[in-house]
Amino acid sequence: MPVPVPRQRAIPAVECGQAPAASPDSGPSKEQAPPGTHPAENPTTRRENPTEKREKPTDTSPDTSTGTDSRTGTEAGTGRTHTDRTQSAAPTNLTVLLIEDDPAGSPIVPDLLDQAGKPIRVRTARNLTEAGRLLTDDVHCILLDLALSTPAHGTGDAEDHDELAVLRHVLELAPRHAVLALTSSSDAERGAEAVAVGAQDYLFRDELDGRLLSRAIRYAVERKRSDSAERRLAEGRLRAQENRRLERGLLPTPLLAGSPLRFAARYRPGRSRALLGGDFYDVVRTPDGTVHAMIGDVCGHGPDEAALGVELRIAWRALTLAGLCGDELLGTLQQVLEHERSDDEIFATLCAVDISPDGRRAGLCLAGHPSPLLSRPGEPARLLPYDNNGPALGLLPGARWPRMQVELGAEWSLMLYTDGLIEGHVGEGRERLGQDGMVEMVRRQLAEGLAGEELLRATVNEVRELNGGELADDVAVVLLDRTA
């Protein structure tokens, strides 16, 4: 819809700056449209007295009214006429802010047309204070006359004698706007210095014509957009690199020094362009020779869940190294979860295994988590018992998690995993792989002689292929091997 223009208020003179300044006693600061016309159709302009009190101009673009060629209006109380620089109130593609303090009021900017032949709107400010008021979001480019007086600071420092201090102030005032510097043809060196400071280009004030300036404005705007896009891209890449380094640092480094067990792991977050998800795992060896392994899954896939998973992993390692295990350890982890989670409905599943120093036996605690897969030479791979599976952490206050004793044997391979590995689809239907499908898959791969990293890589890749692409959930897999 058209934007109504209040009849009692004239379009700001500083947007065009062609009319001579009105005297202080010239009456009200408004312009009257010819009879029978709407104010928006008569955008006459005048250069305001800097000492005259005036309201902050309100931009009414995009204008929907159409106008003819230049109109002649009469300033109220003066009887003087002037010509509109913008020629019509037709919608424009570009708005330019001219900052210059020519006391004679002689224009240094000719009439401008954009690529579509529409007039480019020009606002005029005679100092940085006015420029700050006129610098709205619809301004695309700033034309700065380098002859503008330097703001007086009274500090006596080097900035007071800096010929480009005004430009520096403008760049600080409008960091997202394109800036064209205007200088005299005899001062090309100053124009080059302005570009080095941050202006997009410089032009000679005494050689301007509408075609040259219009093209320079368009080029400056596009260069600024390109520079801004390149800077944002570089900043995005830097943040991504920092995030990757941070997330990589949050992934665990197994503490297995002195243990005969072999360790392998695969981790694939469900979040796009992330290295860390809500799944977590860790493996440590305590001074008595026991190897403790853990894998868990925080419900959800966002950064909050990933952060909570890291907190639980670190807490598990600290508690394990402090000598806790089994029900006591999981109960303490539940307290950590309850204090750190952002919502009371957040929970985490967990599987914890402690392998005896001789490597032949293990204790198993399950908190709502899938049971590990055990394989031994000459026997088909099978799931460990999960009859005494306790509830997930964070669901039941005061819950208990019984510890089951499992015989491993002299040579074995134990795979711990999260449900992301078994909840992928099989083909285009709604059927999921499930634990039975995973067991059959691993049995076949073991029969093909795969082990360690190769086994995990083949398992995860085949699950993705069966799903028809990336898995929606996080996937973590840990493999511990003991050879005779």
Determine the N-to-C terminus distance.
Answer: 82 Å
Mean pLDDT: 78
Query: Which strand order does the major sheet show?
Result: 5-4-6-7-8
Residue share in helix: 25-40%
Count of extended strands: 18
The helix/strand order is EEEEEHEHEHEHEEEHHEEEEEEHHE
Provide the β-strand percentage band. Answer: 15-25%
- Quickly count the helices: 8
Give a description of the structure:
The chain has 484 residues and is α+β, with helices and mostly antiparallel strands. The protein is 27% helix and 19% strand. The chain has a five-stranded parallel β-sheet with strand order 5-4-6-7-8. Helix 5 (303-321) packs antiparallel against helix 6 and helix 7 (434-447) crosses helix 8 (452-467). It is elongated, with a radius of gyration of 37 Å. The model is unreliable at 1-92 (pLDDT under 50).
Any chance you could write out the topology, listing elements then pairs?
Blueprint (H helix, E strand, L loop, with lengths): L30 E2 L39 E4 L5 E3 L11 E5 L21 E5 L2 H7 L6 E5 L19 H9 L4 E6 L4 H10 L3 E4 L5 H41 L11 E7 L10 E7 L5 E8 L4 H19 L4 H15 L7 E8 L5 E7 L5 E3 L6 E2 L20 E4 L4 E6 L16 H14 L4 H16 L7 E8 L2
Parallel strand pairs: 4-5, 4-6, 6-7, 7-8
Antiparallel strand pairs: 1-2, 2-3, 9-18, 10-11, 11-12, 12-13, 13-16, 14-15, 14-17, 17-18
